[in-house]
Amino acid sequence: MLLACVFLLHFSDRPASASQLYKDYTTELVDALQRVLALGGGSGVAESLPPMPDDADEMRGWHEEVMRVEHRSITDALSGKRLETTEGCVQIAIQGSDASGKPVRFGDAGALCAWLCGLRDLPESEGRCVLLTSEPAAGKTWLMSQVIMHALDSELVPILVKVERLQTRLLEIEAAENWVEAFLQSTCDATHYAMLQRLMRERRALLLLDGLDEAGAYRERIERHVAEVVVRLGCVLLCTSRPAGLSDLFGGFHKLKLSPLSAAQQVDFLERRLGAQRAAELGPYLHDKVPVDAVTRGRVTANPLMLSMVASIADLRQGIDMPRTTADLYDVAASAMLKRGTELSDAAQKLLRAVFFEAHVDKQRIVTAKHLDAAAARVGGEAVDELRELVVRDRLPLVRLLQTEPLQMQAFHLSFQEFYAMRALGEGGVQLQGFKWEVWWTNAVFMGVQTGDAFGERFVEAAGLEAGERWRGRVITSLAREALPTAWLPTVVEAAGGGDVARLKAFVGRYRDVIQREGGKAVAQLALQQPDDAVFRALQERPMQRLVTWRNKPNSFDPCVATFAHQGRVQSLAVSTTLIVGGVGKQVYVYDAATEELLGTLDG
Prior knowledge:
The protein is α/β, with parallel strands linked by helices.
């Protein structure tokens, strides 16, 4: 399939002034898309992208028609079927709060788009910028395509920028005043870019920045640039990201998040994909055996991508047991996607895992020839030509070809790259030089920890974690020394053998200032004061100092969600299930209990 969703961002290798070369490149892309649609199945009808007009006045209509062709349907990677964006894809609800803190909720992408269009008329002081977050594979990209389709029937013109593409050009454009404008200028025909720039500056554009978390090593820089520079364009801006690792620069943004799919939505989706009978047969599996999400404690099928994977696997594996863990789901899904294309040799499959690992170590979403060469040097290069040919011919549904020369490709979804990076770690023979507990690795390591000893023992060696005990203890001890980073709390719970992530998050929030100040020294002592629990027992096992036992401490969970110190007399204390209050000296910090986001500071 054509691997970048927005056609306008793929004209990177032709001079803007060379019109014939540009038209030739357009023809190549149209031919590729037609081959892909034919390969993908579904209706079997190939859609042609409209030719670029010579008249600048027709450029907006051309841009909108290209967006419509690109986003009216989405390819289901496992089955190859084309799903209508607004009808065939599940409708995801959105909730959150506006910049003033007022709760907002939208039943689907259409309602969200209408609200976004209304932001255009707000005074600048009230903000036209929105941050939408969700956990891995929860449907952000699906939602983006749905928003685009609704926006095409509005007064705003959608402009989509994939952040993983932007970061590959950052070294070329970082001197520019506005990186988004510079990126569009470098990837679009001159007339096309002029039209897009005019729309943004006249506030007639809906600018969509998809995947801030996929910027890899440049994430912090790009987030800061978006929050401090791109917002000054004044047009309506919608950014998406995983919540883990987000900076606190987006304080003036409206904050939204995707809601998990309800049980009724899941059943309805499966009935439309599989039929009522097969969906009913899956009932016990959905209710009792589907893996549980460590954060939400709900079934992972409340996540749209996971639900789609389950539907496709159920269609392929009738009479065969369904996967019981998240890693197994990805394993079966990846195998199914590879079988839908040309069969890979064992050597090519091993090389593919190694390629994704090298890209992940490099903190890159875009896989290049550099990663292919590094993988070949490590696991052998006999399958390099086989893998490259299949990628260039677009015969690997798991991999999206971005461009042939120089080679650029990416996994169908970042979570599949994470899965393969985890598999490569589990095979052993690799090193994570200078490993730090960065957010980039959370999903890959969490999936690996779920698989057990085979991964864990090799991971702690690859990461160079302190020796002296079994791998689970080494993971927990190392994260305790890091002051229990919020993004890694599900991994702590999984390594401990189970527990409640929300309870651990509340514990960290309650003692945030002490833990950050004292690190592992505080963790063991504070954990000792908690009731008996697998997670808190694990946190006590390797104290860095003698622990003090509180004989008069009640053996029940402390109902207070936070404490704070004050040099003067405390006259009142608020306890809340939705806020966390912490502080030191004469400063009090207020956090959102669910997201750990700093909401404000009270001085004096």
